[in-house]
Amino acid sequence: MPRTADHDERRDRIARALLRAVARKGLARTTMADVADEAGASVGMVQRYFRSKKELLRFGVEYLYGRGAERLDEVELRPPFDDLILRLTETLLPLDEERRTELTVWLEFLPATITDPDLAGLHRETTHHLVDGFAQAFTRAREAGTFPAAYDPTEEAVALVALVDGLTMHHLVGSDHFGADRIRAALSTHIDRLLGPAGGTGPTDTRPGGEQ
């Protein structure tokens, strides 16, 4: 058991080093030697766990998505639903240094999903679970009478994930209109329009996204 734990800890250490290296240098310019330096290890040790850069990158992406899932799991599942969904979605925003690093790397990895079938499949699977989770939350909110019957839970879950991704991207590239306080406020406003006091009245012209 200690040997397995040590093995897993080293792989995680290398994954964290990969994220830091990619955040600093970019995906294309990051080498196995960069990752080894960042991890305080030899290239040989890195290659003992990952035979190629592609294998290392895949594990890095899995680690990245795994950290996001862990943060979601740490959120206490208690009503009201608007507060719950806000707390869940805020874990996906780059609101601290660790998440900023991880999401900077996520933006670097995204283009690779276009040409790499393995990474594309991992991205689709993760996105599916995220959308499905929010859709289930909206369904439960509708059963509780706080989510409008006229709205489709899956469509609103897709829109919410897209909003979070867009806010993340604009914040990371440094747009003046997308500071930390503003992206948090934009997210809160969107959720309030779905689940707040006025949310149960059905669609209105002021809701983001326009007509369904």
TrEMBL record:
> Record's superkingdom?
Bacteria
Print the keywords alphabetically.
DNA-binding, Repressor, Transcription, Transcription regulation
DNA-binding region(s), residue ranges = 31-50
Q: What Pfam families does the entry give?
A: TetR_C_6, TetR_N
> Which InterPro entries has this protein been placed in?
BetI_C (IPR039538), Homeodomain-like_sf (IPR009057), HTH-type_TetR-like_transc_reg (IPR050109), HTH_TetR (IPR001647), Tet_transcr_reg_TetR-rel_C_sf (IPR036271)
The UniProt record lists the keyword Lipoprotein: no
- Report domain HTH tetR-type positions: 8-68
What is the designated name of this protein? TetR family transcriptional regulator
- The organism encoding this protein is Nocardiopsis coralli
